[in-house]
């Protein structure tokens, strides 16, 4: 067990590699109840969320989920979040555990609208069912037709007889369902999901596999790929930004938008022998050039992979870089991301 | 589990000596704590090592851990099979998962290491 944002959480159950393959091939169950929830309601709930978030909230339908950044005035990340739109007067935000108080304070501080912001983390447990057999597992436990919930959509219904928010969202690059519900029922739902997935050899999965799975899918982790000192353009999230609206932090991004970012997030594979780890120094053309934000063996690809910030003019695909591993510069090559994409 | 003819360090290495040749590795407890071992970095034959100083590292999916030399001396053999099959360290850490053989330069150092019984007591106390 490790301390993760104040939560006691298992790194692994049966082993990171075993859990990782289980999610890629069958189905895994993650307890992600540490995630925070913030609810924004009221006549101008949309206006507040649309101003707080970098993304095109105006394009969201009811029952849709969307990835977004929350930015400081200076353009760095407060957090990255998922927005769930219940209606124009009701938005449900799923935020990172260790940022939740900060996120809440931030949203309240920029609330010049007729909107109510409530800290709701204590009202929700969250279980994530992830893998090719996620739908077949989850469907056994609900009357809601899960085939009608498309990727990044959600529905409110009963799950194991408990009122729940059932979302087709996840953090592994696989098909996925995340269920939000009253924490009083967490243990019961956990056990019932494991029972429902038994025919698919479902396994409980910990933080270790969660990290290797999201890294293969090249999904950002706060404190690694994104932080208060990184802006969304550097992080490669320009496509996620709605530049046709005003959002908090947008003004500070103007120079980066005009000139392009000076550094970029890239994916790399080690070509030399060694595993890049978070924080290791990166060299390009023999000079210090950046740092590894996440690095790990990839159980699916059987390679050592990572994400790193490098100067924009040294970020092209195919370029050789070097990662400083225990004093030695070990070669790696810049490759496209995501490292892994599931077959549709 | 922990052979009686081995000696153990607080950093979870083991060593056993025949004549002036020590064979060293990491303990069952160490591999269990690390989880799936995917990478092993060992010294080269001819390198000298010093008791308690880093001589290499093992990596699990999640983390890097230094290996400290249990005795001082010169490296005379390394277990090359571990570079292609690091998982042997999980399966058989006290046997085929040995790391290095060292020509011992100061046999008295062994007296400072733990017996199997003392190591198991140490493990019991550290939990």
Task: Walk me through what this model shows.
- The complex is a heterodimer of chains A (344) and B (127).
- With 344 residues, chain A is of the alpha+beta class.
- Helix content of chain A is 18%, strand content 35%.
- Chain B is an alpha+beta fold and 127 residues long.
- Chain B contains 4 helices and 9 strands; from the N terminus they run βββαβββββααβα.
- Chain B has helices at residues 28-34, 81-84, 88-91, 116-125; strands at residues 7-8, 13-18, 21-26, 37-41, 48-49, 54-60, 64-68, 73-78, 100-104.
- Chain B has a 6-stranded antiparallel beta sheet. In chain B, strands 4-6-7 form a 3-stranded antiparallel beta sheet.
- The mean pLDDT of chain B is 94.
- Chain A binds chain B through residues 11-12, 15-18, 20, 208, 211-212, 273-275, 277, 296-297, 299, 326, and chain B through 35-36, 38-39, 41, 57, 59-62, 64, 83.
Tally of individual helices of chain B: 4
Top CATH class of the largest domain in chain A: Alpha Beta
**Largest interface, C-beta within 8 A:** A-B, 18 and 12 residues
Could you state the CATH homologous superfamily of chain B?
Answer: RNA polymerase II/Efflux pump adaptor protein, barrel-sandwich hybrid domain
Question: What's the multimeric state?
Answer: heterodimer
Largest sheet of chain A: 6 strands, mixed
Q: Topology as H/E string of chain A? A: EEHEEHEEEHEEHEEEHEHHEEEEEE
CATH architecture of chain B: Beta Barrel
First-residue to last-residue Cα separation of chain B: 18 Å
Poorly predicted parts of chain A: none
Q: Do you know the CATH topology of chain B?
A: OB fold (Dihydrolipoamide Acetyltransferase, E2P)
Q: How do the strands line up in the largest sheet of chain B?
A: 1-2-3-9-8-5
Q: Kindly give the count of domains of chain A.
A: 2
Residue-averaged pLDDT of chain B: 94
CATH superfamily of the largest domain in chain A: Probable tRNA modification gtpase trme, domain 1
List the helices and strands and how they pair.
The complex is a heterodimer of chains A (344) and B (127).
Chain A: E1 2-4, E2 7-9, H1 16-25, E3 28-31, E4 36-41, H2 45-52, E5 64-71, E6 77-87, E7 90-95, H3 100-109, E8 116-119, E9 125-130, H4 134-139, E10 154-159, E11 162-167, E12 176-181, H5 186-196, E13 203-205, H6 207-216, H7 254-259, E14 263-270, E15 281-284, E16 287-298, E17 303-311, E18 320-325, E19 328-335
Parallel strand pairs in A: 3-13
Antiparallel strand pairs in A: 1-2, 3-9, 4-7, 4-8, 5-6, 6-7, 9-12, 10-11, 11-12, 14-17, 14-19, 15-16, 15-18, 16-17, 18-19
Helix pairs in contact in A: 1-6
Chain B: E1 7-8, E2 13-18, E3 21-26, H1 28-34, E4 37-41, E5 48-49, E6 54-60, E7 64-68, E8 73-78, H2 81-84, H3 88-91, E9 100-104, H4 116-125
Antiparallel strand pairs in B: 1-2, 2-3, 3-9, 4-6, 5-8, 6-7, 8-9
């Amino acid at each position: 067990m490790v301390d993760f944002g104040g939560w006691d959480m298992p790194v692994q159950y049966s082993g990171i590699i075993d859990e990782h393959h289980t999610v890629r091939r069958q189905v895994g169950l993650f307890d992600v109840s540490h995630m925070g929830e913030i609810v924004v309601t009221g006549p101008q709930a949309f206006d507040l969320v649309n101003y707080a978030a970098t993304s095109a909230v105006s394009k969201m339908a009811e029952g849709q989920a969307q990835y977004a950044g929350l930015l400081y005035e200076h353009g760095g990340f407060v957090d990255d979040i998922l927005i769930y739109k219940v209606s124009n007067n009701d938005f449900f935000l799923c935020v990172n555990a260790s940022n939740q108080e900060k996120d809440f304070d931030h949203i309240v501080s920029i609330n010049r609208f007729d909107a109510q912001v409530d800290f709701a983390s204590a009202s929700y447990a969250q279980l994530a069912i992830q893998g090719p057999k996620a739908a077949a597992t989850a469907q056994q436990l609900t009357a809601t037709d899960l085939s009608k919930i498309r990727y990044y959509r959600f529905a409110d219904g009963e799950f194991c007889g408990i009122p729940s928010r059932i979302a087709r969202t996840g953090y592994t690059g696989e098909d996925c369902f995340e269920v939000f519900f009253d924490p009083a029922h967490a243990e019961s739902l956990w056990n019932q999901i494991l029972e429902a997935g038994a025919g698919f050899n479902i396994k409980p999965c910990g933080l270790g596999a969660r990290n290797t799975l999201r890294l293969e899918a090249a999904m950002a982790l706060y404190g690694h790929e994104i932080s208060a000192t990184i802006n969304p353009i550097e992080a490669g999230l320009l496509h996620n930004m709605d530049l046709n609206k005003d959002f908090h932090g947008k003004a500070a991004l103007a120079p980066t938008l005009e000139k392009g970012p000076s550094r970029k997030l890239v994916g790399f594979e080690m070509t030399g022998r060694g595993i890049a780890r978070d924080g290791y120094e990166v060299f390009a053309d023999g000079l210090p050039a950046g740092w590894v934000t996440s690095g790990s063996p990839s159980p699916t690809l059987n390679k050592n992979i990572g994400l790193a910030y490098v100067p924009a003019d040294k970020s092209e695909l195919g370029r050789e870089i070097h990662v400083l591993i225990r004093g030695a510069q070990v070669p790696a090559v810049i490759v496209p991301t995501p490292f892994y994409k599931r077959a549709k | 589990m922990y052979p009686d003819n081995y000696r153990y360090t607080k950093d979870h290495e083991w060593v056993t000596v025949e004549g002036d040749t020590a064979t060293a590795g990491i303990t069952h407890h160490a591999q269990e704590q690390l989880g799936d071992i995917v990478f092993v970095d060992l010294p080269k034959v001819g390198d000298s090592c010093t008791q308690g100083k880093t001589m290499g590292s093992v990596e699990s999916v999640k983390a890097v851990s230094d290996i400290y030399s249990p005795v001082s001396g010169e490296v005379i053999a390394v277990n090359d099979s571990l570079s292609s099959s690091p998982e042997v360290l999980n399966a058989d850490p006290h046997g085929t998962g040995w790391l290095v053989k060292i020509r011992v330069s100061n046999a008295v150092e062994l007296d400072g290491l733990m017996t199997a019984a003392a190591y198991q007591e140490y493990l019991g106390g550290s939990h």
